[in-house]
Amino acid sequence: MNKPKSFRTEVNVEKVRPFIDYNTPVLSVGSCFAFELYKKIKSGGFKSLHPGGVIYNPISISTHLNNAISAHTYGENDIISHDNIFFSWNHSGKNYHANSIDLLLQKLNKENNEIKEFIDHKPVIIVTFGTAIIYELKSTGQIVANCHKQSQSSFQKRMLEVNEIVTYWTDMIQKIEANFIFTVSPVRHLKDGFIENNRSKSKLILAVHQIIRNHSKKCFYFPSYEILMDELRDYRFYSSDWIHPNEQAVNYIWDKFADTFFDQSTKEVLIEVGKLRKALNHKPMFEVNLSFYEKLKNDIQKISQKTSLYNWKDELNQIDEILAKKI
Predict the structure, then answer these.
(1) Considering only 20-34, 112-126, 236-250, 279-293, which range has the smallest mean pLDDT?
(2) Which of 49, 74, 182, 281 has its CA 20 to 30 A from that of 321?
């Protein structure tokens, strides 16, 4: 009797040469899944940045990076107001808003400088495309990163063509001295319907693979979309909205990412950092154990030698605050 070896079809991901280590800054941009990857990378003790917030379409992601490397200064023309709150057409509204236009512009331009400085250090740039559906301002033709609840009559909605995405990103890749990891978000955009979501994801996948063929020495693909859609094709791997991957799925995809882009020594340090994070999150059942936290501080000092680009200041401050309450 022939028994199946597994009860699922596994997505085989080709191992990439040791690509990301603790001397590599990592920039993660794009959709909400880009933020999930960023959280894993930061938690792992890598120097990392996730600028702009959640940006779904490829053109706005490219524009965001281009504004940084070209030293663009954000001004009033980049800003929109809604209910006396100011937003940027180029950023997510969730993390980039203010009740003063000056405060918002100060934040945007400060981060813009940070992105440029980060890119100057030749990072790995993880790019996660979410949707090929865009919204263009009728008044200017600008493709916006977020509509910020403005009237839909102000926008022209359409789907990007594959060659548009390839053209924008070919120009961007040629400008930046960095390696790129492209992935398509496994999060479905069902507000546009199942058919439109599939058309959109198909165009993103076609565009990404065309970009990688054109720049095979510095661009790579990671199949996060395929892993969730094909390997984890069960609603037990989704959150309660049945759209976003749950923690178990994100962890599984992250493990595959690590196996693909980290060498063995990097993964060993990652395990050490994970144990340290677990200890940091430990909440004593009774009184604070001073020796436990002093050991944690020593452990951070040791691990910081292996994760030299990461700043452990926040974690050390967290311990100091706990010890101060004890005293």
Answers:
(1) 279-293
(2) 49
Of the given ranges (13-17, 164-168, 267-271), which has the lowest mean pLDDT? 13-17
What gap in Å lies between CA 261 and CA 108, rounded to an integer? 31
DSSP state at residue 167: H
How far is 186 from 119, CA to CA, in rounded Å? 26
Pairing of strands 48-49, 26-30: parallel
Q: Give me the residue label for tokens 């079809």.
A: 9
Looking at every residue in the chain, the average pLDDT score rounds to 94
Let me know: does 244 contact 228? Beta carbons within 8 Å.
no
Q: How far is CA 310 from CA 2, 24, 103, 247, in A?
A: 51, 10, 28, 24
The identity of residue 14, as a single letter, is E
3-state secondary structure of 158: strand
The pairs formed by 188-196 with CB atoms below 8 angstroms and a separation of 24 or more are 188/243, 189/56, 189/130, 189/131, 189/133, 190/243, 192/131, 192/133, 196/133, 196/159
CA dihedral 168, 173, 176, 178 (to 10 degrees): 140
* Ranges of each domain in the chain: 26-262, 263-327
Residue 220 β-bridge partners = 181
CA angle 163, 164, 167 (to 5 degrees): 80
* Angle at 39 (CA atoms; ends 50, 322), nearest 5 degrees: 115
What pLDDT digit, counting tens, does each position of 40-99 carry? 999 999 999 999 999 999 999 999 999 999 999 999 999 999 889 999 999 999 989 999
Per-residue pLDDT of 196-209, as tens digits, reads 999 999 999 999 99
* CA 271 – CA 50 distance, rounded (Å): 23
pLDDT at 230: 94
Q: Measured between alpha carbons, how far is 307 from 151 in angstroms, rounded to an integer?
A: 47
